[in-house]
Amino acid sequence: MPAPNTAVAQAPEPWRLTYTPLFVLFAAYTFMILTYRAKGATIVMVLALVCVVLQRAVVRAPAFLWVFAAWVGWAGLSYALNPTADAELWDALIEHVKLILIVLVAVNALRTPTQIRRYLLFVVVSFMVFPARSTLQNYVMGYTVFGRAVGPFIYANSNDLAAISLLVLGPAFALWASEKSHRRLRWIGLGAAAALIVIVILTQSRGGLLGLMTMLVPSGVVLARRRPRTVVAMAIVLTAGLFAAPASFWQRMGGLYKARSVETIGEMDSEGSARQRFAVMQTAMRIIGDHPLLGVGLGGYQQVNAEYSPALGRLDTHNTYLNVAAETGIPGLLIFLALVGTVLWSARDTRPGGGKRRGDARDPDGERQYWLRSALAGYLVAALFGSYARLSVTYIFISLVWAAARAAKAQPRMAPSTYPTTAQHQPAGGSAAHPAMIGSTAM
Question: What is the pTM of this model?
């Protein structure tokens, strides 16, 4: 008598449960703010909020959303007690209230593993077809800024382009690592990852390179023992990207060595950006020292920077954490760090090539969760060189990491032998097994 099959049959998720109105609207909003190829993002988000209210499922409001609300609330207190508060500060405060609503939509739109998978593929394809393609075309045609790759719209800033490319690199690697039985999706993920690594290198962004190393080096160390061929593939992609880098890239990265001393920091690059950044950092530290509790208010840094250092004028901190501390005070910075720390902690129990720590090496949910968390960690490192606390894409990806972790933990645990492979399982009795089993990656 044949041994019973330990896998538990599960019907495919109906398309109506995957492509809910809320999910479709959220995907459309993501496309708009990620590619800048369509207008109407506000209208789409209003409709999505209506769907959140009308949905049958219980509205989800995770802990990090309340921490986010606490941070914006603290900023509201800063605004209320600021004697010089103006329309610019009020507008910035309202924009951050809108970001809370965007997070509310995100965590309710992405509920199931299938929705997570569809969304990852949508994000990768959207970014590659538009901003990434335009960036590579610009570079090939010789349209650069000081030899650095640039893209359209917000991506005209090389540091922002590198940072957001790091975020999308997470979904790309997640597709490659988790779609074991879908070769086409794996190739899409791997191809996108290779192109994104090249883009990060071509931007010559110091923050982007540090974020890339933060993402790849720990993963490579862990994978070296479990999946050495994967490490070789990653090394080949990274080497190809470095080989394609122009001489100016190596000169710019070599300038990091001169950051050891205040006397030589101005020699880090020929365009003088390091010298200016250092001057802005000194100004930001003075502002934080004078406003340690409540800061100068959300959206108020550039004006105050011009008041403290007229020679510099209205400049941004180019550092997310200095910006948050200057605008919302030291308590505001601590709340912001608690926000991102809460999400990273929720996704802590995964590692590359091993899925969940207590699971099997082929656990696709764990793979997705790991690579999304790693991308967010790399982005947070790149945030040392850019101000990203006001970007909606930051909170969309924070919400994605949380949603992926929540979906993975909601999946029933299985013994290693019950994870599906590309081979079809035959249940007792000889009849064909249902095409979807628990843990299957069938789309």
Answer: 0.86
